[in-house]
Write a structure and sequence with these properties.
Layout lengths: L41 H7 L3 H24 L6 E9 L4 H14 L3 E5 L5 E6 L6 E4 L5 E6 H6 L2 H12 L30 H20 L4
Helix pairs in contact: 2-6, 3-5
C-alpha cells in the first residue's frame, strides 16, 4: 500500500495514506469475510492510481520470481506446481500476517505455492516509509515486500500483506474495484476488512502460473 499521489516510481503497492512521522510496530489485524462494502470512489481511485513505472515494477517483480522458479523446475521437471520461497526474518512484527497471507494464497490457488525459506525468492521487510507498504524489485533479480507500521495500524494488516503478496504472484493493482477485490487495495478505504482474493483474482493467478509453467518447460523463460 502506497501513500496517495506522488509515490516513488520504484515502488508499487496498495496506495494507502502513511504518515511521515515515525510509528511503532503494529499488532495483528484479523482478516474478515465482510466483502460487500465499502466501494472505491472516484476520489480514492485518483489518490491511489499508480504510474506506468509502478506497473512496470509489478511486472518485473513477477518475472524475477518466475525466473527463480525455472531453476526449481529443472530439478523437479514433473512438478504439478512451483514453490516460491520467501524470507520473513526481516519483518518479525508481521510474522502472523505473513503466515495468514501465505495460508490465504496457498488455499486459493494450486499452480504456485508459497513457502518460508532462508534467503528466499523474495523477502519481507518492515519499518516506516511515507509511501506506505509496497513491493519492489531490488535490481539484482529479486524483490521484496515492505510493510509500513503506520499504514498497517490504519488498515487491515492481513489485507495489506495479502495484497502485496498478490503482486509477487503476478497481479496488478486495481483500485477501481470493490472491497471484495483484494487488489483494489486502499481504494475502498480503511473500513474494508477483506483479505481474500476474489474468484477472478484466483483464476488470474492460476492462469499466469499455468502459462508460466508451460513457458518454463519449453525454455521460453530464461
Amino acid at each position: 500500500m502506497r501513500s496517495p499521489k506522488k509515490a516513488l516510481s520504484a515502488a508499487l503497492g496498495l496506495g494507502l495514506a502513511a504518515a511521515l512521522a515515525s510509528a511503532a510496530p503494529v499488532s495483528a489485524a484479523s482478516p474478515s469475510s465482510h466483502t460487500d462494502s465499502p466501494r472505491s470512489s472516484p476520489a480514492s481511485i485518483a489518490a491511489y492510481q499508480g504510474s506506468a513505472a509502478d506497473k512496470a515494477d509489478t511486472k518485473a517483480f513477477f518475472e524475477a520470481v518466475m525466473k527463480a522458479a525455472k531453476a526449481k523446475l529443472k530439478a523437479h521437471p514433473n512438478a504439478a506446481s512451483v514453490t516460491v520461497t520467501y524470507d520473513a526474518s526481516a519483518a518479525p512484527t508481521f510474522a502472523g500476517q505473513i503466515a495468514q497471507s501465505t495460508s490465504i494464497w496457498n488455499s486459493a490457488v494450486r499452480n504456485v505455492k508459497l513457502q518460508e525459506g532462508s534467503g528466499g525468492d523474495f523477502q519481507y521487510r518492515e519499518g516506516n516509509d511515507p509511501r506506505g507498504s509496497y513491493a519492489s524489485t531490488d535490481g539484482h533479480g529479486k524483490g521484496f515486500i515492505f510493510l509500513d507500521y503506520r499504514q498497517n495500524q490504519e488498515y487491515n494488516s492481513t489485507r495489506v500483506t495479502a495484497h502485496e503478496t498478490g503482486h509477487v504472484l503476478g497481479l496488478p493493482d486495481h483500485y477501481q474495484g470493490p472491497c471484495s477485490e483484494l487488489m483494489s487495495g486502499g481504494g475502498p478505504g480503511p473500513s474494508c476488512q477483506n483479505a481474500q482474493p476474489d474468484a477472478n483474482e484466483r483464476a488470474r493467478v492460476e492462469q499466469l502460473w499455468a502459462n508460466g509453467l508451460a513457458d518454463l518447460r519449453s525454455g521460453k523463460v530464461s
